[in-house]
Amino acid sequence: MFSVPRQRKWWQRPSAGVDVLVENRAERGSANEREDSHPDLAGGDPEELFTRLFDTHAAALRSYFAGRVGGHVADDLVAETFLLALRKRGTYDPCRGPVRPWLYGIATNVLRGHTRKELRGLRATARMVGDAGTAVEAVEVRVAERVDAQQRTRRLAASLARLSRLDRDVLLLSAWAELTPTEIGQALDMPAGTVRSRLYRARRALRKALALQEREAGRGGRR
């Protein structure tokens, strides 16, 4: 019986490598540059397969979860993702794409079970975090290197909370999980063209929201 490995000491969250949320980045990497395994999950020893899968992807998944809902629940969500992946291993088709987007598709569904909590966290952060030291540029917004639930600025948190659930998923799978539009499409079961349209729309909405909050903050500071 396969069981999710216990949390390891090397699970210190790495630098999130988060690029600019609102910039339109080119699709990254060729097949060789971003090579991902295409394991046969339906055959072989499940424990051996999923232990290897866990060793390869768990740290990145934990980093993604920590950025979305906080490190305090990230470990549980990683465990839930791999347990669901084990149960659903027959649905993975190596011919359709690498295993990484498939895992993030499961991870996104796990997150959707926590949507209300995530939105509450974003809004609470927006209320609690003061403006001091959190000024952001309206066009070139950079998220702190180690983005997590405690480090979100008030303005960014409020703006992310205003996006639709699907637009937020697409945007953060791109920025935080560093999936390409093609990989996001595989994860969320939608065409890559639709992903690109949603990315454009989400970035534009985020730019507008941040610019509006910046102007309002400026007017407040002049009073």
Automatic annotation (TrEMBL):
GO MF, one annotated term: sigma factor activity
Keywords associated with the record: Sigma factor, Transcription, Transcription regulation
The keyword Transcription regulation belongs to this UniProt entry's keyword annotation: yes
One Pfam assignment: Sigma70_r2
The RNA polymerase sigma-70 region domain, residue ranges: 53-118
Single GO BP term: DNA-templated transcription initiation
Residues in RNA polymerase sigma factor 70 region 4 type domain copies: 154-206
Family named by the database record: Belongs to the sigma-70 factor family. ECF subfamily.
Name listed for the protein in its UniProt record: RNA polymerase sigma factor, sigma-70 family
Annotated source species: Saccharomonospora glauca K62
